[in-house]
Amino acid sequence: MTDIAIRNALILDGSGAEGFEADIGISGGMIESVGTVGACQTEINGEGLTLAPGLIDTHAHDDGAFLRHPDMTFKLSQGVTTVVSGNCGFSAIPFDPDADARAASGGILSGLGGNFTDLSGYFDAVLEAKPAINNMMLVGHNTVRSLAVSDQKRAPSEREMQTMQGHVEQALEQGACGFSTGLIYHPGRYSQTEEIIRLASLAGSANALYTTHMRNEGDRLLEAVEEALQIGDEARVHTHISHHKAAGPGNWGKVTPSLSRIDRAIASGQAVSMDVYPYTAGSGRMIEYFNLDRINRDLAEVIRIASCPAFRAYEGRMLKDIAAEQQRDITELTREILTAPRGENTICIQFIIDEADVETNLRWPEMMVGSDGIPDLRGKPHPRLYGTFAKILGHYVRDRALMSLPEAIRRMTSLPAATFGMRQRGMIQTGFHADLVLFDPALVADTATYDEPQTLAQGIDTVIVNGKLAFQRGQHQMAGSGQMLRYRETAHGGPKL
Ligand code: ZN
Ligand code: CU
Is this structure's pTM higher than 0.85? Predict the structure, then answer.
């Protein structure tokens, strides 16, 4: 007998086509039928609601969260059923249990620990924690380079290069969907283009992806785009540009020439894709954005503290307000925060993006959505962690009408599933995995704000992950049915097809 039937909902199948009415039957984790469904154990009435494939977050930093917060409420509650982790050059694997845990993956995954060293071991550890959603992994350049060269500002020796290649190859063999860089961060910023081409070409040979947080997203954005395209071209690899943006008021508007350049590359036959997060602030490890000898005052003025182990009282506050209150110079305050014990783990939010650029990005016909959420739940994280997908559906689709609802669903389901090599996901079709979200298009909205960032989206009725009821009317069902996805292969730990 069928496990679950969802009846009377309007179906958006993920292809971008207009909705149609049908009943959906789910059995053994898969979509068993689309059309008419007979008797079944669990009936869900979708009257007045829309049913779509579960949403896919193409840009996540959830490697550590899968172990610390396997309920993954911040993603599941938005209708996200699959994330791609290991972005911006930082990945949980390869992992060296003997290395300083705080330095692991450049600190963005700090505190990550476990009894694993490679992708297979990591997947086993996560499955043991019964994750609520699916995860797919990239192997990160910063992580691999710290293991092989530590944080040294130089080119790798040939031997170190081989160590890095070995790590990347192993991850790809075990099912990573690609190789990621964060060329703005340590130690990736010490690399020459040639080093990246050599490593990215391994992803190319595996027919996997090269994803990049480019070397520059501000004054030298267009040069950084050239480098990303050169790497993709010479390494013969599909290039995915992460969180496309133009940072800093002096650069606002540059997303337009950048998109034109990428359009030209695509027209000439190069494989390039992109994602964006729908906010005007970025977020990351604060120490990466400052030179302690020459603190950038303009940047400090637009920074808000997300989490700060040294000064918890600063969390959720703008640096300029703290400086004014303490009658201190803002650069001195910045230096104090960053040089305090564990100051290097401070996560900040920087208001550096123009809203018009966010909309220009979202209008680009193949733009995907990646939250770039940083799941440090102790402070006041960037609201994109809890809000990204509901904000797209509510604000940008319904209220601003930047694209139709079926098209938005396509960009957050079948398009990323095809790009990132997720087999039989991202569509409502017989024989596909039953990852589904039932929502109310009239009500869906993000509620997470910079002041109150850890609040659930509205209008998400039911989320199903691999055929199990995972979330219903605000209640987490603790189904623990997430799977670890191997690039274009059967999901690890899931039913063998
Ligand atoms: Zn990034
Ligand atoms: Cu990122």
Answer: yes
